[in-house]
UniProtKB/TrEMBL annotation:
One Pfam family named in its UniProt record: Phage_T4_gp19
GO molecular function, one term: structural molecule activity
Coiled coil (UniProt feature): none
Superkingdom to which the source organism belongs: Bacteria
Record InterPro entries: CHP02241, Phage_T4_Gp19
UniProt name for this protein: Phage tail protein
Organism whose genome encodes this protein: Kocuria dechangensis
Amino acid sequence: MDKVLEAVDTAVNVQYVVTLDEQSLGSFSTCEGLGCEVVMETREEGGNNDFVWQLPSRLKYPNITLTRPLGPDTAKIASWFAALATGYDRCTGLIEARNAKGVTIASWQLHDVVPVRWKGPSFNPDQPKVLVETLEIAHHGFAAGPTGQN
């Protein structure tokens, strides 16, 4: 019996495309912080010395940090942060992991995205390197979790 090997599309050479309420912020080279944690509360029961009850209480989502080389899309982030001076409405975010061919491998839709921090490049003539920017966002969870492959 011959085995047919299928090509598996892995997340090698991935870019992360970020969209907020249908407005693209461009693509990023790294994405850290996608995840979820169940916060556990402990309760001690009188007379029970064998264990401590661990009860799930709520979900906790870490901030997401995205980085990329400085480029034309930097202006999109600058205008997004500049708009915060007049107030801010939470928005829905979408992060798509795309392979080198531009095919979406996985995507995450985020509830109530809020910008936390933008950090521009460090200019140091003693250490020439690629100029990068970092964007940190907070959110209140995944709308539907990973949507899978398209």
